[in-house]
Write a structure and sequence with these properties.
Largest interface: A-B, 47 and 49 residues
Mean pLDDT of chain B: 77
Oligomer: heterodimer
Shape of chain B: elongated
Number of strands of chain B: 0
Structural class of chain A: mainly alpha
Number of helices of chain A: 6
Mean pLDDT of chain A: 58
Number of strands of chain A: 0
Radius of gyration of chain B: 19 Å
Distance between the termini of chain B: 52 Å
Strand content of chain A: under 5%
Largest sheet of chain A: none
Shape of chain A: flat
Low-confidence stretches of chain B: 184-210
Chain lengths: 133, 237
């Protein structure tokens, strides 16, 4: 994971499907909150090279609330992972995880939903002011 | 502002937020989930802001700016041009029209599931795939002819109404564009071709092009669902 993050930090404009896949799989396979925290500390300096990332808000809104161990992406969708950019994959994977967690752990439903609302709020605000500053 | 300055000011919108929104849309339309009516209402209220014409216009301009800019900040420009080209080549141009398309599909997918919670989806065959939630929700609607029990909360009804207005407006705009396509397809062809390429490839092509067909299908589904929901909702008054 570190290796993959380092490559991304050094080569932010590289859109390697393999790299994107690896990083996404890393996120999917998180097994504990401590790993989520580790990822949190790695992402700001490594994966996200420009600007701020809505994904970070999403993950931090949910951080520490739940373990992601119950969820895994079916292997069939592996091919789909190669299509899109990192923020896209991260949000899709994270929201998918949040929805699946909310389904299987009703006690976390409120937290998961609030995280999604926070993400939508942030994106809508930024879209509304796109090139105004 | 020059085109480049405008682009750089909105750099993170194209490089982070638009792809992030697309990721959100993919998750919502793919993952079947028993959304609650109040959850739909809360999300729809926020998403409705993206129908505003000035927002759509501004977002329409950004990818075009990106692809036609030349300038000093080569690294950033290359980065954004690679990203935008990649999305355009996969039929998702990240324009304002495209974002509205995603909003429409995400909204009706959530609403259909929120209203149809009592309907069974047992005998609807589906494999995990992109847009699975949207497909299952639509098949359920076709099967039961009613979206569900309707909404009773007055705030939710208000959101339903404003969503309906937005969807109707989008649908009208789209019809006008299709008519204009017939007479003058060459007008600003880049924007026309790419403004809303297909959201997903599994949908059959429609009349003029698959892009228009898909937008048409999505808007139509949204309008049909909203209409049925409104009728159902006013019946419960």
């Amino acid at each position: 994971m570190r290796l993959c993050c380092d490559i991304m930090r050094l080569e932010p404009h590289v859109h390697s499907p393999t790299l994107e896949c690896n990083a996404t799989l890393v996120l999917q396979n998180l097994r504990s909150t401590s790993q989520t925290r580790m990822l949190m500390t790695l992402y700001p300096s490594s994966l996200i090279s420009y600007g701020t990332s809505p994904t970070l808000t999403l993950i931090s809104a949910f951080r520490g609330k739940v373990c992601l161990h119950s969820w895994r992406e079916p292997a069939a969708s592996y091919a789909m992972l190669q299509e899109w950019a990192m923020p896209d994959q991260l949000v899709s994977t994270t929201v998918t995880a949040l929805l699946k967690i909310a389904s299987s752990h009703p006690e976390h439903r409120g937290g998961a939903f609030r995280a999604i609302v926070a993400l939508v709020t942030e994106i809508v605000e930024r879209f509304k002011t796109a090139d105004r500053e | 502002m020059t085109m480049l300055l405008r682009l750089l000011a909105a750099f993170d919108v194209l490089s982070q937020y638009a792809p992030a929104f697309h990721g959100l849309y993919r998750a919502i339309s793919s993952i079947p989930f028993d959304w609650a009516p109040e959850e739909w209402s809360q999300l729809a209220e926020q998403l409705n802001a993206l129908f505003a014409p000035d927002v759509v216009e501004r977002l329409n301009r950004l990818p075009v700016d990106a692809l036609s800019s030349t300038g000093e900040d080569i690294e950033k420009l290359q980065y954004i041009q690679t990203l935008v080209s990649r999305y355009v080549s996969r039929g998702r141009p990240l324009t304002g029209y495209f974002i509205v398309c995603c909003v429409v599909e995400a909204q009706w997918t959530i609403l259909a599931q929120a209203l149809g919670r009592t309907h069974s989806a047992e005998d609807i065959a589906s494999a995990p795939q992109e847009a699975e939630a949207a497909n299952v929700a639509w098949q359920k609607l076709l099967k039961y002819h009613e979206p569900g029990l309707g909404l009773t909360d007055s705030k939710q009804k208000a959101v339903l109404l404003s969503t309906m207005k937005n969807a109707m407006q989008t649908f009208t705009t789209l019809l006008v564009q299709i008519q204009e396509m017939d007479s003058d397809p060459a007008d600003d062809s880049y924007a026309w071709e790419t403004m809303s390429e297909s959201l997903v490839n599994h949908c059959g092509a429609h009349a003029h092009s698959s892009a228009y067909g898909l937008r048409y299908r999505n808007s139509l589904r949204c309008v049909v669902l909203l209409w049925a929901s409104l009728r159902r909702t006013s019946m419960t008054d």
